[in-house]
Structures are given as C-alpha cells and as structure tokens.
Design brief:
The chain is an alpha/beta fold. The chain has helices at 54-62, 83-89, 105-115, 122-131, 147-161, 177-192; strands at 15-25, 28-39, 43-47, 69-74, 77-78, 90-93, 165-169, 196-200, 210-214. The protein is 32% helix and 26% strand. A hairpin with a 2-residue loop joins strand 1 (15-25) and strand 2. Helix 3 (105-115) crosses helix 4, helix 3 (105-115) packs parallel to helix 5 and helix 4 packs across helix 5 (147-161). The longest helix is centred in the last third of the chain and has 16 residues, at 177-192.
Length: 215
C-alpha cells in the first residue's frame, strides 16, 4: 500500500518522517511505498486487521527492525545516524508490559528512570503512581497487580519518562473505562506540550489532531 500524511506545526521543529518504507515477511509484502510525516502536537493512529504489519511498522519506527526499503528520519536526519540521540527522545511501549515482576511499581519507575538517564524524584514517582489509581500499591511487587493495574504503572512511566516521541502498541488494552479516559487525558497533555505520538489501537481514539493511517 501507499500512503502519505503530512502536517506542519508552529510549536516546534520536531518531526518524524517515513519515506517509501517497504517490509516483506517471507513471501508476503506487508507494505510498500509507505510515507508519512508528523510534527509536534500530532498523533498518528495506525489501523488495520491483525497481521497487516502494524507492530512491524512500529518496530521499524523505533529502529528495532529494519525496513526492506526506505528510511525513517527524526528531525530530518536518518535514524541510523543518530541512534543514541533518537532513543533519548523516544518512549516505546509494546504489547508486553516490560515491567519487572519481582520489583515494586515504584522500583520499576526508578529502574527505568535510571536506564533512561532521567532524574526522577521520589515524590514525583509517587505522585505519578497515585495519579493513576495506585495509591497504596506503590510498594507491591508487580506480580501482585492486575493486568489493568500494570497498565497504570506504564501510564505513570509515560508521565515521568520526559520523552518527546511516544510510540505505543495497543495502549488501551486491559484498561477499564475510567483508565481509558485517564490515558486519553495524558496523551492530550503530551500533545499540547508539543509531543508526538504514533499508536496502534483497535478502538476509536478520542484525541485531537489525529491522523489515520490504514494498513
């Protein structure tokens, strides 16, 4: 398939661009000639049936996988020329929650802050967890939390990570109606502050400045 989406934002020069991406798995072409550009304050909602390449596209955008053809650019520079700088600007959350089961919710936030080289004060970490309904569960091991509560820990990480680009694979999975509204609010804050977002979701998303890419 071929698609092109382009937006211009006056908030910042931040931009994520895909140029003529192609991806082949075995003897199947998932997509080809795929191009788009999003800028500060924009959200790209990638949609399509299972197996069409949504997660594969996200992995290409993060630099975890390489396309068969084409390239991805961050602020007009190819990813392979600025891998470290790009990943400082990036928060990627995939299907798996990537939380350490033996650590507490608080310890997970602190661990990822250390890995990401982000200063995270104890009071800020606690406030983030409590904002997303985890008051009283901050010091429980992750394996004691429900699937929905684990997603809330990830929402707290999104708040504390300070990344400019979020790439999220099905972020609304396992969330109840209240948590969905909370996540939509968090995303709205990120975009209004000039952040960028690429996400997959089988659900309709109630977010402003959404561009839809059908695979």
């Amino acid at each position: 398939m071929t698609a092109y989406i382009s937006t211009i934002s006056s908030q910042s020069s931040l931009a994520l661009e895909a140029r003529a991406l192609g991806c082949v798995r075995g003897d199947k072409t998932l997509f080809s000639g795929l191009s788009f550009q999003i800028a500060a304050g924009d959200c790209l909602h990638v949609r399509g049936e299972n197996g069409v390449g949504k997660t594969t596209l996200l992995r290409i955008l993060t630099g975890l996988s390489q396309p068969e053809s084409g390239e991805v650019l961050w602020n007009q520079q190819a990813l392979n020329s600025q891998s470290s700088a790009y990943h400082r600007d990036l928060l990627f959350l995939g299907h798996r929650d990537a939380l350490k089961e033996e650590l507490t919710a608080l310890e997970n936030l602190q661990m990822y802050a250390a890995i990401d080289d982000v200063e995270l004060l104890l009071e800020d970490a606690m406030a983030a967890l409590r904002r997303f309904g985890l008051r009283g569960r901050e010091n429980l091991p992750i394996h004691c939390l429900s699937a929905g509560q684990k997603r809330r820990v990830l929402m707290a990480r999104m708040l504390t990570r300070q990344a400019r680009l979020w790439i999220l694979d099905e972020p609304f999975n396992a969330l109840d109606a209240k948590a969905v509204v909370e996540l939509e609010g968090l995303i709205a804050e990120h975009l209004s502050a000039g952040g960028l977002l690429v996400l997959t979701s089988h659900q309709a998303v109630k977010i402003t400045n959404v561009k839809v890419l059908e695979l």
